[in-house]
Amino acid sequence: MSELLPEPLADVLDAVPLDPIALESLQMRVEHWFLTEVLVWSTLGQLAVLAAALLLGRLAARPLREALVRAIARRRQPEQSLRRLTLLVAATAFPIVAVLLLWFAMAVAAGPDWPRLLISTAAHLLTAWIVIHIAAALIHNETLSRLVALFAFSVATLGILNLLEPVMAALDRLGLEIADVYISVLSVLKAMVLLAVLLWLATVISRILETRVQHAEGLTPSIQVLIGKLLKFALIAIAFVVTLRSIGIDLTAFAIFTGALGVGVGLGLQRTVSNLISGIILLMDRSIKPGDVIEIEETFGWVSSLGARYVSVTTRDGKEWLIPNEDLITTRVVNWSFTSDRLRLPLPFGVSYDSDVRKAMDLAVEAAREEPRVLEEPAPVCRVMAFGDSAVELELRLWIRDPVAGIVNVRSAVLLAMWDKFHAHDIRIPFPQRDLHIKDADDLVAALQGLRHERNERGRRKATSSALEP
Question: CA–CA separation, 55 vs 98, rounded Å?
Fold first, then answer.
């Protein structure tokens, strides 16, 4: 036997004492297993089914992948989660089709009780790999992704060892009875998995429907947000109801918890429920909607989104303030674009008394008309407001239509244009001046002379002491 092996391995075998009888017995057992377990029609049939499933999966994967890519490409703005899931399914089309064919073969073989151990092992392993691959791509939380992978691997291992059904039966026997409802560990695990899948589906479907609603014509932004939130709440509620019904819980049993729930809402969830109701009121009365420019206390910006508990307000410096819905109901809010998106900007300024006031007013109106964002109708006007202590006080009034694009930038551009025009036409902008009138100048002159004499004497003494120093 050592003559057939490579020289280094033959040397090792020659150095180790071996029992020829034991080796011959092992060889006979291996040959017997190979002849009775491998080279039999049942195993060869399973290998043929496995090869056929892989071949058909390979042939069907390419057209399926192309169809999925074309379907997602035809959508103008596909939802991100749906797009990612579709591309992921397209990338794993070959193993998905193959595992579906293997499970179908197992179902067919289960009827006449044909041997299917090899097909079952391959199907469980391939299913576990697909679940782990998809979970790793879709779930960004590393801990949750590992839990899903561990669950899939455990189910696959139990299925390969034919221990899945006994373990499920044992978990089903572990439980307790609550209000004539038997809740087992198995039912809880099934409910958790079902709830996770349904919540994910509800989130994806709600986002798709919200995208469609946002592109629907004839609906105001607040109605679009309201419909989207109601659809999301309804889908989540359906997911919970289906999960509870799946484990045999009668929903009428929750009627006894209504009083306790009311006390809990009154004590601990008062602000939360208040924000939820306030959000629904804001969406229904359309007082604040996405895109509005609002001012509340020290916050000025535009509404970027309306949530169930808060409103997101983005300021010009990039800060995003999350303001509770209740504050928008109970606090005075300035909505700069409630009934109209037009906004009037007052620009106060002053010119000196020796300047041409009418010319300054014309130049101010001309500077406003040169700014592209200033509306032609209503036209900008300039008014004399008062005669101040140091200047003739004027005010330029102009209108813009897009306060979301900024207010300070328009004001700055117009003021800079006014500055250039005033300098070109010798229009002076004064600064505060005061005239001092002295009633009795003799005492002031005497005091100034005394201070001058004292300063001179101090300088003379300093020069003398410096000259006497060695």
Answer: 8
171-201 pLDDT tens trace: 777 777 766 667 777 888 888 888 888 887 8
> 349 and 418 in contact (C-beta within 8 Å)?
yes
Cβ-Cβ contacts under 8 Å for 421 (sequence gap 6 or more): 363, 366, 367, 427
pLDDT single digits (tens) 305-328? 877 788 888 887 778 888 888 888
**Which class is domain 343-424?**
alpha beta
d(CA 326, CA 301): 18
pTM of the model: 0.47
Residue reference for tokens 């406003």: 368
Task: Work out whether the CA dihedral 45, 49, 55, 59 comes out positive or negative.
Answer: positive
Q: Which residues contact 301 (CB under 8 A, 6 or more apart)?
A: 293, 294, 313, 314, 315, 316, 319, 321
Options 1.10.1040.10, 1.10.8.60, 2.30.30.60, 3.20.20.70; which CATH number does 286-335 get?
Answer: 2.30.30.60
Taking CA 133 as the corner, what is the angle to CA 132 and CA 136, rounded to the nearest 5 degrees? 80
- A 10 A CB-CB count for 425 gives 13
Burial of 133 by CB count in 10 Å (0-12 exposed, 13-18 middle, 19+ buried)? middle
Q: Which residues, at least 6 apart from 443, have a Cβ–Cβ distance to it below 8 Å?
A: none
pLDDT surpassing 50 at residue 65: yes
